TrEMBL record:
GO molecular function: DNA binding; DNA strand exchange activity
Domain Recombinase: 187-305
Residue ranges of coiled coil: 391-418
Any Pfam family hit: Recombinase
InterPro entries, alphabetized: DNA_bind_recomb_sf, DNA_bind_recombinase_dom, Resolv_N, Resolvase-like_N_sf, SSR_resolvase
Protein name stated in the entry: Recombinase domain-containing protein
SUPFAM superfamilies according to UniProt: Resolvase-like
Keyword Membrane belongs to the record: no
Source organism per UniProt: Brooklawnia propionicigenes
This protein's UniProt keywords: Coiled coil
Length: 512
């Protein structure tokens, strides 16, 4: 984004001062770049930056510098831990490199950067272009060794100040976490109460309205409603979202927003530090710890992600449930409608760079259904399915496994993309797949919670299992299959034949 500001965007007093200098300037005046930065400017008022620029303009007149360009960075850190790019500073560096300006000015060195690497870049750019540096009301020539040394010391001190502030913040955050105190961004569903005179934080407590929204959403999801339907209810009602009030065009309520709220242990009265629950918090929980754990199990249940649980119902049993054995993507239903061909419904892998799987849809549906019922009918499996587990150890393992699976899948996707682009041969891709596929499968198995699903429990304990299965709707059947089994399909070895080959189907229970 271009941060070079036109005159109408400047405060009137600053605008008048710059116009006056430009009118006074002649060929002897040095065309200069004025840069201002503030680390926090939540309301985008740029007041601190404007104060910096006003003082810079005051320094320019006695030394006959003309402020030709004004560049600003609002709400941007300059330390080595910054998370946002500084578009304004990058533009200022580009202008220095162009060599059309003789001076560069900041209110103090820390406005340019709190990282010694930034100074090295700035020094080299100014030396190459012959640009002078104005800061603290004094002009430095960075081609001179004494000026270069003094300015290097200033930047080193600014970096040390940033390090000290960071260490202090880390210590404060850790201390607050250990004592269960609130710290950082206000979690959705709560409000903070401050002392009227000192401004000191007194407590964090449930917000009467937003807290009730969290409680309502948790109850509805636990009762079986989809995240989407609850989110749309909140969106239609115009309820406030967790988005910061100063964000332009907030996203509003959607599945991801609601999921983030209900995944936060804060709502269950737990204190989180660096992504880990370290103990009870001092604030009142919005929902019980037991309900929170139930929600996390539901979110991790593969059956909830089976298409047909909400929205447009699935038309067949295994669409988006069975997966390609090679790329891991779900198979989709397709029908061959070419002229002269008998319509033949089938499942296909539609992932670009794979397309390896095509299999009969009726054949796969019938085979999987019979295999599932046969497995459920075995007495040895009944005890495994109905075992109880509080899930606390699984939650920790599942988080680690999810991160591992995502990293492995990214590596595999990159290899497939390289093969598609022609930069990777088939032999190498095959070796990569043979190495990563088992690791991905193992990580996915570790992500699956102990199966205590009431739907499965009711099915396997019914007097007539097959009659109970037949009485279920397809959506419920699909959820049960996906929750209990990993179904993958391999390539055919008999190309040109349309018969169903059961040996191509790999089924593995999700029970460890």
């Amino acid at each position: 984004m271009n941060r070079r500001l036109e005159m109408p965007l400047l405060p009137p007093e600053l605008q008048v001062s710059i116009e006056r200098l430009r009118e006074m300037a002649d060929e002897d005046w040095l065309a200069s770049i004025l840069y201002g930065r503030a680390s926090q400017d939540r309301h985008k008022l740029m007041r601190s930056i404007d104060d910096q620029l006003m003082e810079l303009v005051g320094w320019c007149e006695p030394i006959r510098w003309c402020p030709a360009v004004i560049v600003r960075d609002s709400d941007r850190s300059a330390s080595q831990w910054r998370k946002k790019e500084r578009e304004g500073f990058d533009e200022a560096m580009a202008l220095i490199e162009e060599g059309n300006h003789g001076g560069f000015a900041t209110w103090e060195p820390s406005r340019a950067g709190r990282d010694l690497e930034i100074y090295v870049q700035l020094r080299k750019a100014c030396q190459r272009a012959g640009v002078l540096y104005l800061t603290h009301g004094r002009v430095y020539d960075l081609s001179r060794s004494d000026d270069s040394f003094m300015m290097g010391f200033e930047f080193l001190r600014a970096e040390a100040d940033a390090n000290t502030m960071r260490e202090r913040q880390i210590r404060t955050a850790k201390l607050n976490a250990e004592k269960g105190r609130p710290h950082g961004r206000l979690p959705y569903g709560y409000r903070r109460v401050y002392d009227e005179h000192t401004g000191v934080l007194l407590r964090q407590e449930p917000d009467p309205h937003k807290g009730q929204i969290v409680r309502h959403a948790a109850r509805e999801v636990l009762a079986g409603r989809s995240l989407y339907s609850v989110a749309m209810e909140l969106q239609d009602a115009g309820e406030p979202t967790p988005m910061k009030s100063w964000v332009e065009n907030p996203r509003g309520w959607d599945t991801k927003t609601l999921h983030q709220v209900l995944r936060n242990p804060t709502i269950a009265g737990k204190r989180v530090y660096r992504g880990e629950i370290i103990g009870d918090a001092l604030w009142e929980p919005l929902i019980s710890w037991e309900d929170f754990q139930r929600l996390q199990r539901m979110f991790a249940d593969p059956g909830r992600r089976a298409k047909g649980g909400g929205g447009t119902p699935a038309k067949t049993l295994m669409t988006h449930v069975a997966r390609c054995h090679y790329c891991g993507r779900p198979l989709r239903r397709a029908v061959d409608k070419r002229p002269g061909k008998t319509p033949a419904p089938k499942y296909q892998c539609m992932f670009r760079g794979c397309y390896k799987i095509t299999i009969s849809q009726p054949g796969l549906d019938a085979y999987v259904e019979e295999a599932v019922l046969s497995w459920f009918e075995q007495p040895a499996n009944l005890a495994r399915l109905t075992a109880s587990d509080d899930g606390s150890e699984w939650e920790r393992q599942a988080r680690d496994a999810e991160q591992q699976r995502a990293a492995l899948q990214t590596r595999l996707d990159e290899a497939i993309a390289q093969y598609t682009a022609g930069s990777l041969n088939l032999d190498t891709l095959t070796k990569v797949e043979q190495t990563l596929r088992p690791q991905i499968a193992e990580a996915e198995r570790a992500m699956v919670p102990p199966i205590t699903d009431e739907r499965i429990r009711a099915l396997v304990t019914a007097n007539d299992l097959r009659a109970a299965w037949a009485a279920l709707g397809m959506a419920e059947q699909r959820k049960i299959i996906k929750a209990a089994f990993d179904v993958r399909v391999q390539q055919t070895t008999n190309r040109g034949q349309n018969k169903f080959e059961p040996e191509r189907v790999l089924m593995e229970p999700r029970i460890r």
